[in-house]
Amino acid sequence: MKHTLAVLVENKPGVLTHISGLISRRAFNIESIAAGYTEEPDTTRITIVVEGNEMEQEQVVNQLSKLVDVIKICDLTAVESIHRELALIKVNASVNTRSDIINIVEIFRANIVDVSRETMVIELSGDATKIDALCQVLEEDHGIIEIARTGKIALSRGPIPAKA
Amino acid sequence: MKMTGAEAIIQSLRNEEVDVVFGYPGGAVLSLYDALYKANFNHILTKHEQGSVHAADGYARATGKVGVVIATSGPGATNLVTGIATAYMDSIPLVAITGQVSVPMIGRDSFQEADIRGITTPITKHNYLVKKVEDLPGALKEAFYIARTGRPGPVVVDIAKDVFVALIDYQYPKEVKLRGYHPLFEGDLETIDKVFEELRLAHNPLIFVGGGVNLSDSSEALKVLIEQTGFPVISSLMGLGCVPFDNPQYLGMVGMHGSYAANMATTECDLLLGIGVRFDDRVTGPTCEFAPKAKIIHFDIDPAEINKNVIANLRVLGDMKWSIPALVQRVEQVSEELKKQVRAWTEKVRFWQREKPLFYKRDTDNVMPQAVIEKVSQLTQGEAVIVTDVGQHQMWVAQNYGFKNPRSFLTSGGLGTMGYGLPAALGAQCGLPDRKVILFVGDGGIMMNCQELATVADYQFPVKILILNNQSLGMVAQWQRLFYGGRYSHTSLKGGHTDFVKLAEAMGVTGLRVKKPEELDRVLEQALATPGPVVVDIQIPETMDALPMVPSGARLDQMIFGEVDE
């Protein structure tokens, strides 16, 4: 089963090294990892999606918690939460195919953020399956040149923050 | 007070009550060594950085204090790696201070630059790279605090060269504020109640003690628990010394080279109280077949140890200094009933002890290693600090020395580091100048850090170094004999030209030799009576196995005993 962990860490150099080092050393199965600043300037929030059974999942949380710079870990799979990922997709787009792509983009509520004579760049946020679906359509009908995805970030619903 | 970064380090070491550091100078730490010189700080110069770090480790294990090692950047720092990993695997409190190239030179592949922070990330409890002198006192304060609290471990503080000379208005922090580090001290009393209920239900309970009891200095409380429950006790390699070997409830070491009674009791018990153990693979064999009939209760200070290797039915998180006395308090009132409850089980365990006690073939032509250890045990009455290297001799010592005290058996258990023994012994002797420190080492392992014989001589550390010389890399040769068709690929040292007596003498250490059994007692007595360091080259048979043994992948009750005569 997949678990989405919100990992709050000290915003210091070397913290990501500690986390990625631990993940590789303990041979944990990590699907995605995304880091960014938070409402507190000295805290970084890392969202990790980890695959494994209950025992492996417990080990990931316990081992990560042992790191001195890890302040708190919250398993967002256990609570109601919103999950999002951002993707930028560069797709083949000639004058003839542009309008079809615009249609697809509208259906997916994505945005077009760049256009050239041969290509378009589409921006989409959503859960992974939605992004996968758009990619599939674009690839089959038009051909994708490159994709950049952020990995998942997540936030719990309701008033209680992960740091509480 | 204004001072340089180097002076701030000396002051911080004093604030942490560090009375000795082990180290080796070099370019990046010149200013630090200058400050050590000016402050006349107690420093032990080894002959190799690896010797320094193992010495600091031995010092920490023997005294319970934080060991401190200093090395220069690049090769100095990378030479610490094996020692840091050794300390990490056995949870030994260590602070390693390394020099780094100056801040503007970092990241440019400068002379003697190595990313020691990156290198040591997976083998330290925490590490720092200090690039600003203002961060230095805080980093050192945290380093010592992290190294010694909770589950202890090594911490590296890598300091850029220019930080040593930068001026700072020195103030040592009074306390440590770390949002992400809360070493667990006391656990939940409700779990103790649950443990108590399990104790009342058990018919075949077994107490299994490990290094955590040594590290938390809780063997006194453990003694009461053992006495009050009447339960049989087994120990891991790292737990040796926590229970005196002559305690009638003690069954010996468990695991790959464990005693028959300890391994059978583990296989048959219905309740296993693992106290400060981590269920290492050398203990368990295949985890799915480990203690198959038992409910497992796991006492540990580190939550990440629970369910890591074996699934615990019940966990008791917290410092053993809290949990063992808390359990003792519950047990006291029902002590007699518990003892009654395990009467039949005790009989059974005693039967196993009688059925297959530890055994070795007596020999009048050869010096048997077990006989050497028995004699040393007898001469020192189990009161010496015993240090080993890694291999067959390590197992023979674990099985045959009569340990009476905690912190009296220093060995690289987790990492199994050859070359650990000699420097660790000198570190232990440095920390405990009035204790007898005896090193057992193989003829393979002694050569891995034999340069430290010179250190032992220079400082006149009176370590007694007993080389159990079988002219082979014995443990590997044993596996080749048992599992690789006797193909001794590169494990025979026979025909080698090293004369250990001459080697010792060349370095300034008294050298003695034992070739025949009739010489053994006299030479050992002479060695122990000789002031200063002594090497004894003891020639033992070449093809002896460390037995009993559980082959890799087999269950604990599938032991090999070897030939049985008499």
Task: For the structure shown, list the relevant keywords.
heterodimer, A: 164 residues, Alpha-Beta Plaits, 5-stranded antiparallel β-sheet, 4-stranded antiparallel β-sheet, 9 strands, elongated, B: 566 residues, alpha/beta, Rossmann fold, 3 domains, 6-stranded parallel β-sheet, 20 strands, 16% strand, globular
Describe this structure in words.
- The complex is a heterodimer of chains A (164) and B (566).
- By secondary structure, chain A is α+β, with helices and mostly antiparallel strands.
- Chain A has two domains: 78 residues, Alpha-Beta Plaits; 72 residues, ACT-like. Chain A, domain 2 (Alpha-Beta Plaits), CATH 3.30.70.1150.
- In chain A, 29% of the residues lie in helices and 41% in strands.
- Chain A contains four helices and nine strands.
- In chain A, the strands form two sheets. In chain A, strands 5, 6, 7, 8 and 9 form a five-stranded antiparallel sheet that branches. A four-stranded antiparallel sheet of chain A has the order 2-3-1-4, covered by helices on one side.
- Chain A is elongated.
- The two termini of chain A are 25 Å apart.
- The relative contact order of chain A is 0.20.
- The mean pLDDT of chain A is 94.
- With 566 residues, chain B is of the alpha/beta class.
- Chain B folds into three domains: 168 residues, Rossmann fold (3-Layer(aba) Sandwich); 167 residues, 3-Layer(aba) Sandwich (Rossmann fold), CATH 3.40.50; 171 residues, Rossmann fold (3-Layer(aba) Sandwich).
- In chain B, the strands form four sheets. Chain B has a six-stranded parallel sheet with strand order 3-2-4-5-7-6, sandwiched between helices. In chain B, strands 11-10-9-12-13-14 form a six-stranded parallel sheet, with helices on both faces. In chain B, strands 16-15-17-18-20-19 form a six-stranded parallel sheet, with helices on both faces.
- In chain B, α3 packs parallel to α5 and α17 packs across α18.
- The longest helix of chain B has 15 residues.
- Chain B is globular and about 70 Å long.
- Chain B starts with a strand and ends in a 27-residue tail after the last strand.
- The mean pLDDT of chain B is 96.
- The chains are: A alpha+beta (164), B alpha/beta (566).
- At the A-B interface, α1, α2 and β4 of A face β6 of B.
